[in-house]
Amino acid sequence: MITATTIEEVRNVIKKWKAEGLTVGLVPTMGALHEGHASLVEAAVAGCDRAVASVFVNPTQFGEGEDLDSYPRDFARDCEVLEAKGCDMVFHPAVEEMYPDGYGTYVNLESEMTKQLCGKSRPGHFRGVCTVVSKLFNIVTPDRAYFGEKDAQQLAVIRRMVKDMNYGIEIVGCPTVREADGLARSSRNSYLNEEERAAAVVLYRSISRAKEMLAAFGAPSAEDPADAGALKAAMTEIVSSEPLARIDYIEAVDGETLLPKERLVSGDLVAMAVYIGKTRLIDNFTI
Ligand code: PAF
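A: This is the predicted complex of the input protein with pantoate.
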């Protein structure tokens, strides 16, 4: 696996690959790689001739008081994971490589979709994500880019940005990878102590309950949509029964625009953010 720390190194390798007619897949990450990331790399390796992963804890997507400094970093281990999955190149730039002195250009999706869900409690987060992902797209010029469905809002925002900015890159969403008890894999799970880790399963329990309710209703359709209020109430009751949990939001939204909806049909999204102790976890499912 090639390790590149500069944009120039990446460009030289990509130029060579493209001259050989090879397709390139990109997996953008912030490192602290887990099974979820590994599944994205697997998909990139399977779907493209060459797979590139970026490992960069992007400061512009963290708000004041968030966990930029404490975010887990272990590049040596990340390389082992990437190499084992057959990744061809890892791009691991310093902050100054991505945001040199005088840096001043940001990509901001201004529609309502970045103001919903996580956008409410993390203002500026998606501006940072869109900016760094745009830069990575321009540096790597991939044919396809792979993102986890666990970050459902991020995935929808990136799809919109790619459409708006005519990137011509296929965005591939990959299913959430879960622990044995259902907790969605996340780099932030490492913040949880033993008691919090046990409590964190409440997110998945609430999702499972909502899915059971949906299964009992039968498949929702335009004539017979599912009632968002009933699903949210059942999920809220389960999460609230866990003393270590504090709900940031449990919302039902249109799967594409992310605007709130009361009557849900196939493709809509039920998403949640819950603090377990000080750790903010997210999860979701699609109707
Ligand atoms: O999902 C993440 O880890 C990050 O938001 C991303 C897409 C790598 C951008 O920094």
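The pocket of pantoate is lined by residues 28-30, 58, 61, 129, 132-133, 151, 154 (CB under 6 Å). DSSP finds ten helices and eleven strands in the chain.
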